[in-house]
Specification:
- This protein has 190 residues and is of the alpha+beta class.
- It folds into two domains: 2-31; 33-189, Immunoglobulin-like (Sandwich), CATH 2.60.40.
- Helix content is 15%, strand content 36%.
- It has two helices and 13 strands; from the N terminus they run ααβββββββββββββ.
- A six-stranded mixed beta sheet has the order 1-10-7-6-4-13, with no helix packed on it. Strands 5-12-11-8-9 form a five-stranded antiparallel beta sheet, with no helix packed on it.
- It comes from Streptomyces sp. NBC_00093.
Length: 190
């Protein structure tokens, strides 16, 4: 008991303990290591897929992926397979034009690690394998489609109407906190 009083009686030791505890708290907040063991599975249907009997609509003009034909079901315009970057990542990415003419990026059978501040980005960067591809996606032009809904499953991300799809060639699962790609896919027209 006397030793504890002696240690607590030194103000610099208390200061060091406070700084150490604050540093540990900040580190836990920043890295969120518990997310590595927490999976979030999201299973969304493709919008409009069940509405195949809806009246046909004409695809919007001016889009590089537009077609003059009448469309009554969602149309996959481009796609690719996810490759791993900072974390093991697999699944399929599709750029889909919906019946109403809007576009979504669809992640199917996604399987990646959970992490802090994960986003889905539509980018103009080429997909590179290995460490060379980890940090390229914020070097050029990109559009954030929002937070990753879950690190597993199939999900849809709306593409804003004002996005010129001809300017983007890939999709990245991007960790905004650490500026690194968890995985990415090159979009090839189908």
């Amino acid at each position: 008991m006397g030793r504890v009083r002696k240690v607590l009686g030194r103000p610099w030791i208390i200061g060091v303990l406070v700084v150490a505890m604050a540093g540990a708290g900040f580190g836990l907040y920043w890295f969120q290591p518990w997310k590595l063991w927490q999976d979030e599975t999201v299973q969304e249907a493709l919008p409009g897929a069940a509405e195949a009997s809806a009246p046909p609509t004409v695809a919007p003009s001016g889009s590089p992926f537009a077609s003059p034909s009448v469309q009554s079901v969602p149309d996959t315009l481009a796609g690719g397979e996810l490759i791993s970057h900072e974390h093991a990542t697999s699944g399929t990415v599709k750029l889909v034009r919906l019946v109403d003419g809007s576009h979504v990026v669809r992640l199917e059978n996604l399987d990646t690690s959970n992490g802090p501040d994960l986003r889905v980005w539509l980018t103009d960067a080429p997909v590179k394998e290995g460490m060379a591809g980890w940090r390229v996606f914020d070097d050029g032009e990109y559009v954030s489609l929002g937070r990753l809904k879950g690190n597993k499953g199939s999900q849809n991300y709306a593409v804003p109407e004002d996005v010129d799809l001809s300017r983007y060639s890939s999709v990245s699962i991007w960790c905004d906190r650490f500026d690194v790609s968890f995985g990415a896919a090159e979009l090839a027209q189908v």
